[in-house]
Amino acid sequence: MSKKASEDRVVIFDTTLRDGEQSPGATMTHDEKMEIAEMLDEMGVDIIEAGFPIASEGDFEAVSDIARNTKNAVICGLARAQFKDIDRCWEAVRHAKRPRIHTFIGTSPLHRAIPNLDKDQMAERIHQTVTHARNLCDNVQWSPMDATRTEHDYLCRVVEIAIRAGATTINIPDTVGYTAPRESADLIRMLIERVPGADEIIFATHCHNDLGMATANSLAAVEAGARQIECTINGLGERAGNTALEEVVMALKVRHDIMPYRTGIDTRKIMNISRRVAAVSGFPVQFNKAIVGKNAFAHESGIHQDGMLKNAETFEIMRPEDVGLAATNLVMGKHSGRAALRAKLKELGFDLADNQLNDVFVRFKALADRKKEVYDDDLIALMADSASEAGTHLQVKFLRVICGTEAPQSADLILTIGGVDHQVTAQGDGPVDATFNAIKKLFPHQTRLALYQVHAVTEGTDAQATVSVRLEEDGKIVTGQASDTDTVVASAKAYVGALNNLIVRRAKTKPADEMKSVS
Ligand code: KIV
Ligand code: ZN
After folding, report:
1. Any residues with Cβ below 6 Å from ligand 1, and which?
2. pLDDT tens column, 295-319
3. Same structural domain for residues 213 and 118?
4. Residue range 267-282: average pLDDT?
5. Which pLDDT band holds residue 515 (cuts at 50, 70, 90)?
């Protein structure tokens, strides 16, 4: 065992804002990224990979603002193996109390073929770029992308070069989710045994979930000596996603008896950040997802309920409170007052100023008038709506649809555009289609509807529906999400929410004179 690998502390490196956000459709706004970064820091994540600074102006600004504002965590930016990428990355992360540059290159035969470098040329590039990064920053992480499909001898050679050039963390990515637990462990063990200097650095594991083995592969790597796990909230990430932070952290906590390692995560903050990431990314959490799924702590069957009442440990290996699920799901209703709402929202992770509370209280009362019982999930949905609507360019003021067995259906809509009300009636193939046509008439745009998804927030016919909408323009995706007891109203608000995000995105990427046509 190497010196680092004999320590029991596992570093949690969160890449929700980089690898997670990079996944098609998961785009977050600047403010959403700032909010998630703050939540990650508060929950005790050690390193936040905040973005890929050279990818766009927006990414650069997000990384530098997160670097400026984060209190505790190391702030890391990603850079390809090019000087200009590394310089840009450093410009963004240098404002952090504890900055890190993460540079990478694909080392497997398939990836080496892309820049058309032979083994020696690539080794030289690694030496130069890691040295360059290290001259800028004393905390440098290097990754041989597609490490799990790289020839072992070559992998050892390049890892050694990166260590000699000054890398302080070596990350071993399973980029395509191809490895399996035993192989994941063997690879880390081999590197620790064979590479000179391995003793002085930390090995990280970065797994993708294409075969559903990301969590198992990450934990196996830790058992073999890796001391940094790269992961995302809810397992967000390209294709089948990345290792889920909540899974590895809770596995290490619950099975400390056989995996004696610790993290610095306050696990009681898991549920709130999971819900928030689901809301802002537009990727809902599957009901039966481990740890954070709606059903993860639900005991419906008679046998289970009976056992749970006698002794919770019969069917529960962890307590709901340990992951931040309130022990009681106190139901709110139209008689609940401001103080009760404030207390409940605080418990759910929303600490509101008085003016914010006033706004939410009005919405809460409107919801409680339509819905007898308001559950935690309803309030969380309400908060997601208020966050996305306040001060936006487009707002749904009025909507009435006429629908039934006779087509076409029609929608009367009043849309407030930049503070001015506009009214229109449009028809369509169903109430949602008619509503979207009405929005398009009032705010013409050329986008493709990449996703339209509805799911019920709670049970019952008066349940709110949460609608997610993704729109694509010039290959870029924006999302919107809204909830309402009326599915068509939720759809209109989600669509308009996505358009508001589109306006923000256009404003960031287009020259000033073109911007005028946006409003
Ligand atoms: O999956 C991967 O290989 C990556 C690298 C950039 C670390 O995300
Ligand atoms: Zn990745």
Report:
1. 19, 104, 143, 145, 171, 173, 175, 206, 208
2. 888 765 556 656 666 777 776 789 9
3. yes
4. 91
5. very low
Do residues 76 and 167 share a domain? Answer: yes
- What are the tens digits of pLDDT across the range 181-201? 999 999 999 999 999 999 999
Residues 262 and 165 occupy one common structural domain: yes
Query: The tokens of 103 are what?
Result: 């540079």
Ligand 1 centroid, distance to 73 Cα (angstroms): 20
pLDDT digits (tens, 9 = 90+) for 80-95: 999 999 999 999 999 9
Radius of gyration for the chain, computed over Cα atoms and rounded to the nearest angstrom: 25
With the most atoms of ligand 1 within 8 angstroms of its CB, the residue from 145, 217, 231 to mutate is 145
> Are 148 and 63 within one domain?
yes
* Smallest-distance ligand from the CA of 145: 1
317 and 275: one domain?
Answer: no
Residues with CB under 5 A from ligand 2 (ion): 19
Cα 316 to averaged position of ligand 2 atoms, centre (Å): 32
Does an H or E element contain 85, and which? helix 83-93
Place of tokens 């707002």: 395
The token pair at 293 is 């799924």
**Distant-in-sequence, close-in-space partners of 326: CB < 8 Å, separation ≥ 6:** 320, 347, 348, 376
Instruction: Give the structural domain span for 257.
Output: 3-281
- Give the DSSP H/E element, type plus range, for residue 307: helix 302-310
Q: Could you tell me if 216 and 326 lie in one domain?
A: no
Q: Which of 348, 368, 388 is the last residue of a domain?
A: 388
- 348 and 316: one domain? yes
Q: Report the domain count for the chain.
A: 3
